[in-house]
Amino acid sequence: MSTDDKNRAIAAAILPLVGGPENIDSVAHCMTRLRLGLRDRSLVQDDALRALPAVMGVVEDDTYQIVLGPGTVARVTPEFEALVAKAPDLAERGAAIKAAQKSKNQTPFKLFLRRIANIFVPLIPALIGCGIIAGLNGLLINLGWLTGVTPALAAMASGFMALIAVFVGFNTAKEFGGTPILGGAVAAIIVFPGVAKIDAFGQTLSPGQGGVLGALGAAILAVYVEKWCRRWVPESLDVLVTPTLTVLVSGLVTIFGLMFVAGEISTAIGDFANWLLANAGAGAGFVLGGLFLPLVMLGLHQALIPIHTTLIEQQGFTVLLPILAMAGAGQVGAAMAVYIKLPRNGSIRRTIKSALPAGFLGVGEPLIYGVSLPLGRPFVTACVGGAFGAGFIGLFNMLGDKVGSTAIGPSGWALFPLLDGNKGLGETIAIYAAGLLVGYAVGFVATYVWGFSPRLLEEFNVDTAPAETPVASSANGVTPTPTPEPEPLKV
After folding, report:
1. Could you give the CA distance from residue 30 to residue 13 in angstroms, rounded to a whole number?
2. How many structural domains is the chain composed of?
């Protein structure tokens, strides 16, 4: 079976289990998940969906999210969209249904965080690609190889970061209901070299001052100015007056206000992160690593995305991501302990065996929602493993060895190509690898020793679905496999 046929088969297997094309209101994807807006949640066949070999887990939030893993989800989504597009009434579905689903059980704060994520998450592929090229370029420079190529690699790695404010402005305007190109035009002021000739608050502005935070504020302001113009400017003049006033008003405020304020905030974020890790790195790492999995469950980790991006823009890497990545290491260690503690539970052991490779690469949802969270205690001990691994990385930050990432998104072993720091690359990689080992080890030991009460062990260490039990193939040729009995917690 070709790759295209395989992806088409996965999409075809998923579609009837989520209620068919008539039940799909929206289709999108992030780094690892297929995100579906559903008309009727009761039509979803959860158990059969989790049984599909390609499905690593499901997560319910404002959308129904099916974890397929990095790479796979980007290839399956177009095939899924093509199948859904065949529904005759898809284009006629009301926006009210989608709005009602997105607003259900949402607080204004969580809605704002999702908007922030919608702005920055589309930038992650470029950050990853440019980050890896930057790492390769640095390695070649240190080795003295291909000196004629390294300037070209530097241009490829730096071009996107030099203009990232424009992309942030574009996405911000789009997310907040304005014209995207106007948001990008206003944000472009921030990186225009000519601002170096302008004085504001008694200081000469610098190109890029305010960075992504300034671009975010400028684009939001542009949206409000544009909406005001649409309301008051006559239609006959709209095409000329609205874009002119939008760029003029929000541009002046950006130059003589936002760039300075956002620049001060950005500098404060960078200074605070450096101070915190230099003076309390071990303790700060322990707390951050221990709390990151609960933050992910609640969606609050999205608030860190602009902070990561600001640090990458300022320093070339974010020192927070390698610390937070240790949470996944604790999760992997905990899962290995669960595998050993439950030798008679075929379902959970099978889930762990299939999900561990993704866990090593930093995709933790299958282990979280399919193993540790339903069991309870192993989720807590996984957080303990993450705390110790992150504390280890933080300790070396205190000792002067910064371990950072040139992009956001990947974690686990997938973060190795993106590592950077203030010392040699070999030393940075060694510290990060040692932190992973600490997270694995502590997560394993904590779960093995404290992860199961006698009642919990008695309840789950039973034969649930023997590994050799045959399972009938589905009509589309994709063979499902058994999954754990516990239902994942809705977040």
Report:
1. 20
2. 3
**164 and 91 in one domain?**
no
Same domain, 162 and 33: no
Alpha helices for 233-304 (secondary structure H): 235-253, 259-298
**CA-based nearest residue to 424, from 401, 445, 443:** 401
Neighbours of 76 (CB within 10 A): 24
Residue 33 host element (H or E): strand 33-38
| Chain segment 396-428, per-residue pLDDT in tens | 999 999 999 998 888 899 899 999 988 888 899
Sign, CA dihedral 109-175-318-429, equals: positive
Label residue 141 by pLDDT band (50, 70, 90).
confident
Can you tell me the distance from the alpha carbon of 407 to that of 316, in angstroms, rounded to the nearest whole number? 9
77: containing domain: 3-106
pLDDT at 475 over 90: no
Residues 367 and 455 in one domain: yes
Please tell me whether residues 30 and 55 are part of one structural domain.
yes
pLDDT at 428: 93
- Half-sphere exposure for 184 (CA within 13 Å, toward CB): 11
**138's tokens:** 């640095």
Q: Are residues 65 and 199 in the same domain?
A: no
pLDDT at position 481 is 39
Tens of pLDDT, residue by residue over 426-435, are 899 999 999 9
Residue among 157, 155, 152, 162 at smallest CA distance from 130: 157
Whether 30 is catalytic is yes
Please give the backbone phi and psi of residue 67, each rounded to the nearest 5 degrees, phi first. Answer: -80, 115
Instruction: Please give the Cα distance from 71 to 68 (Å, whole number).
Output: 8
Instruction: For residues 337 and 456, state if they share a domain.
Output: yes
pLDDT over 90 at 195, yes or no: yes
| Higher per-residue confidence, 298 vs 331 | 331
- Look at residue 205 and tell me if it is in a domain: yes
Q: Are 311 and 358 in contact (CB under 8 A)?
A: no
Tell me if residue 374 falls in helix, strand or coil.
helix
- Specify whether 435 is located in the same domain as 325: yes
Q: What is residue 476's predicted lDDT score, i.e. its pLDDT?
A: 38
What gap in Å lies between CA 347 and CA 389, rounded to an integer? 29
- Evaluate if residue 288 carries a pLDDT over 90: yes
Which residues are registered as beta bridge partners of 204? 199
Q: What is the DSSP string of 40-53?
A: -GGG--HHHHHHST
pLDDT at 91 over 70: no
For 35, the enclosing helix (H) or strand (E) is strand 33-38
Q: In 348-409, which ranges are E strands?
A: 403-405
Distance CA 271, CA 344 (A): 52
- The whole-number pLDDT of residue 103 equals 53
